[in-house]
């Protein structure tokens, strides 16, 4: 009976670990990882974020040790988020020379000059209302917000940031920032645009970590509707035209179709942002003993690579670097 059956033997290529290693199509590398850091004012501050076990808000005095740890693990890039002491209507703390992010950039560049410092460029952590721009009539005013965003990017570049990563989803932010950087002589600083950023419930824990929850309303007039796919391509296209060097898709896990669409359409490096809620869900399940954390994390990050991501921003970076070294 079996002798006459015609079928393909796919299991031939799965017969041993060595065979599987030989034919593996995608893998996560240390060089793909970008580690997010939350920096706070004060001294000796190392606050674990309650909804993100293993993630801390750090004061500047901890940054040298943090960089040494990351470099020992082989992690070469960080993305910075600032938690200021004071907030105001305009988010002034985002663009002053003595802002928390500017100070952190200088400290990292002083202690670990080879570390690539990516500055998240947004106002929501610095505004009293928690929105990502200037408020007029209970909504974020696009063009006025662009001016403040360009100022923020410029002050981050002056402080020594290697890459500017605008995340506020105003229309024209890449154009405004590119012009401001070029006019100030920062022609060689790339823009990693949060081109495709959905209005997502997966950002909940981040808003605890960065204290950036909107005080009224939501972000749905500027971040994208999770139901939309073609809109992602329109967003990515305009950012490419305006001069983006990298395209971020965010969140990652539930948006791998979008990562693939953007990968197929554009030839810039694609970054998947494995966001806070995606991290917290895995941590919570792992703490309950319901899943195998290591296998699950590697599986989902590999899926991001398979979907077409070149780089991954993830709170799991340190764990992944350790696992890869074993
Ligand atoms: C700032 C910003 C947010 C995240 C990255 N940059 C929050 C938001 O848009 O509300 C979320 C990151 C995460 O959840 O890990 N605008």
SSE topology:
Layout: H1 17-23, E1 33-40, E2 46-48, E3 56-59, H2 63-73, E4 77-83, H3 100-111, E5 116-121, E6 134-136, E7 139-141, H4 142-159, E8 163-166, H5 173-183, E9 192-197, H6 204-209, H7 230-242, E10 246-250, H8 256-265, E11 270-274, H9 276-287, H10 293-307, E12 311-314, H11 317-325
Helix pairs in contact: 3-4, 4-5
- Main beta sheet, described? 10 strands, mixed
Q: State mean pLDDT (0 to 100 scale).
A: 97
Rg from alpha-carbon coordinates: 21 Å
CATH class: Alpha Beta
* N to C succession of SSEs: HEEEHEHEEEHEHEHHEHEHHEH
The helix content is 25-40%
Number of strands: 12
- What proportion of the residues form beta strands (DSSP E)? 15-25%
Number of self-contained structural domains: 1
The CATH architecture assignment turns out to be Alpha-Beta Barrel
Low-confidence stretches: none
In CATH terms, the superfamily is Aldolase class I
The ligands found in this model are: ligand PBG
User: What structural class is derived from the secondary structure elements?
Assistant: alpha/beta
InterPro entries: ALAD, ALAD_AS, Aldolase_TIM
Family: Belongs to the ALAD family.
Binding site for Mg(2+): 235
Active site: 197, 250
């Amino acid at each position: 009976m079996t002798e006459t059956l015609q079928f393909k033997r796919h299991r031939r290529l799965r017969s041993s670990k060595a065979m599987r290693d030989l034919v593996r199509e995608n893998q996560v590398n240390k060089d793909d990882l970008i580690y997010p850091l939350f920096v706070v004012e004060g001294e000796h501050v190392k606050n674990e974020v309650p909804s993100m076990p293993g993630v801390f808000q750090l004061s500047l005095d901890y940054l040298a040790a943090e960089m040494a740890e990351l470099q020992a693990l082989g992690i070469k890039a960080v993305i910075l988020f600032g938690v200021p002491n004071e907030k105001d209507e305009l988010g002034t703390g985002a663009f002053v020379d003595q802002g928390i992010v500017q100070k952190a950039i200088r400290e990292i560049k002083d202690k670990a000059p080879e570390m690539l410092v990516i500055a998240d460029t947004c106002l929501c952590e610095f505004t009293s209302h928690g929105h990502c721009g200037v408020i007029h009539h209970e909504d974020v005013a696009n063009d006025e917000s662009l001016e403040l965003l360009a100022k923020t990017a410029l002050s981050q570049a002056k402080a020594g940031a290697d890459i500017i990563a605008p995340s506020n989803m105003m229309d024209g932010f890449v154009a405004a920032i590119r012009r401001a950087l070029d006019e100030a002589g920062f022609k060689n600083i790339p823009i990693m645009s949060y081109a495709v950023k959905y209005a997502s419930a997966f950002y909940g824990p981040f808003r605890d970590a960065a204290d950036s929850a909107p005080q009224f309303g939501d972000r749905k007039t500027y971040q994208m509707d999770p139901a939309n796919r073609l809109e992602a391509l329109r967003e990515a296209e305009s950012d490419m035209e305006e001069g983006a060097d990298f395209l971020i898709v965010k969140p990652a896990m539930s948006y791998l179709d979008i990562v693939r669409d953007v990968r197929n359409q554009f030839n810039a490096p694609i970054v998947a942002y494995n966001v806070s809620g995606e991290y917290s869900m895995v941590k919570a399940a792992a703490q309950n003993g319901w899943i195998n954390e290591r296998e699950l994390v590697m599986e989902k990050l590999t899926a991001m690579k398979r979907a077409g991501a070149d780089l991954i921003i993830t709170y799991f970076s340190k764990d992944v670097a350790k696992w890869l070294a074993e």
